[in-house]
Design a protein that fits this description.
Keywords: Signal. By secondary structure, the chain is an alpha+beta fold. It contains three helices and twelve strands. It has two domains: about 150 residues, Trefoil (Acidic Fibroblast Growth Factor, subunit A); about 45 residues, no CATH class. Strands 1, 2, 3, 4, 5, 6, 7, 8, 9, 10, 11 and 12 form a twelve-stranded antiparallel β-sheet that branches. Bound molecules: 2-acetamido-2-deoxy-beta-D-glucopyranose (NAG) (4 copies).
Length: about 210
Amino acid sequence: MKFTLSTIALLASAVSAAVTDIDLYIDSQNKEVDGNSLQPLHEGAAIQYLFLGHQQNAFQYDSDTQVLSGPNPPQTPFANNFSIVDHVAWTSSSTEATKVTIIGGHSADRGFLAINGSSDGFYAVKNINDPYQYSNQQYALVYYPDGGQPDGAISVNIRTHTSDNSTSNDSSASASPSAAASSAPKVTPANGAGANAVSGAVLGGAALLAMLI
Ligand SMILES: *[C@@H]1O[C@H](CO)[C@@H](O)[C@H](O)[C@H]1NC(C)=O
Ligand SMILES: *[C@@H]1O[C@H](CO)[C@@H](O)[C@H](O)[C@H]1NC(C)=O
Ligand SMILES: *[C@@H]1O[C@H](CO)[C@@H](O)[C@H](O)[C@H]1NC(C)=O
Ligand SMILES: *[C@@H]1O[C@H](CO)[C@@H](O)[C@H](O)[C@H]1NC(C)=O
């Protein structure tokens, strides 16, 4: 019974966490980079530097923990924390997240990514001598909130846009119970002996959640 309750609690917390999918775009006076997306490119073990590009990539943002995480490349099925390390913006499954907020939006699903309460300090720049030398061709995203950015760095802001509109509209939540139920079978019982009881608990949890939502 203890396991049943904790399973339900786990499912409930997973559903109630304030995580939304967001797309990130460059906002800049510079026409060459304005409107670009941010693309994580693999630069070594568990690290992806962020580059300006044209491919849309869904990031996840947890407004409770203020952790932004990047799309998972297939080789790392872990959360990829957005972090600023030595002025470089990257996503990594091995570094602490740099906490971010979303500010200045003119509607709930749009705004600007901010660190320490400010959306300034971000730059696009080439030739940062990254491990795989992508920055010879592509602009890398770097962060210099106190000046000292490299010569030729282009000042940019990062525009956010929630890609999952349903999370910002409670009246569309009626679609959620089926999502909760269909995700339930993915929870694998820890051992064979308790399998029936556990899957019963999971289904019960999903049904309970469906009623709560
Ligand atoms: C991501 O950052 C959070 C907050 O700093 C931390 O608790 C978590 O362990 C980090 N995750 C990884 C995989 O490093
Ligand atoms: C945010 O501000 C704190 C306090 O000034 C500072 O220590 C920290 O480095 C800042 N974060 C970033 C990512 O620059
Ligand atoms: C979400 O809303 C925006 C406008 O706020 C709209 O442009 C976009 O197409 C919507 N996306 C979906 C998946 O409904
Ligand atoms: C939420 O969705 C409903 C129906 O799809 C719509 O009528 C309503 O205006 C939406 N509310 C907001 C705040 O977008």
